[in-house]
Write a structure and sequence with these properties.
Helix content: 10-25%
Shape: globular
Structural class: alpha+beta
Largest sheet: 9 strands, antiparallel
Number of helices: 3
Order of helices and strands: EHEEEEHEEEHE
Distance between the termini: 8 Å
Mean pLDDT: 88
Radius of gyration: 15 Å
Number of domains: 1
Length: 139
């Protein structure tokens, strides 16, 4: 998988939605929401009546549920790992690796991994259009 890296504002917003919205109708599957070995805590909140509440109540979401949640709330993400797996397994080895994976660390650093180059370049162009900083394409 190749990756793009960039920096998002350290602020409340809908940044995960802004990062991913160009592909929301191009992908399908299940989003796993959690953490990475190097970043052990999922930290993402939204504000309900002045109280900070976990943004993600579940560890898995359908594509529609995931984008609906991200597009309907203002939130703050400190860290997390968000992986989309396709509903179809690899016929050769029976595995189902993520087709997209997003890592957010320290509130601002974002790495997006994608198996599909067209999808990766769509997200790369979107990062530029959104005005995110320090955009790099690796791999």
């Amino acid at each position: 998988m190749r990756k793009i890296s960039f920096i998002i504002p350290n602020a409340w917003g809908q940044y995960l939605y802004q990062i991913l919205f160009p592909i929301k109708d191009l992908v399908d599957g299940t989003w796993a929401v959690g953490c990475d070995v190097d970043e052990p805590y999922l930290q993402a909140w939204h504000n309900i009546n002045g109280e900070m509440v976990d943004l993600f109540a579940s560890g898995c979401y359908s594509n529609q549920e995931f984008f609906s949640l991200l597009g309907s709330r203002v939130y703050y993400i400190v860290s997390g790992k968000f992986s989309l797996t396709s509903p179809c397994k690899n016929r050769r080895n029976g595995l189902n690796p993520p087709c997209i994976e997003i890592l957010v660390t320290d509130s601002v650093y974002v790495d997006v991994y994608a198996a599909d180059e067209k999808m990766l370049f769509t997200l790369y162009d979107n990062a530029i259009n959104q005005g995110f900083e320090n955009i790099e394409l690796d791999g």
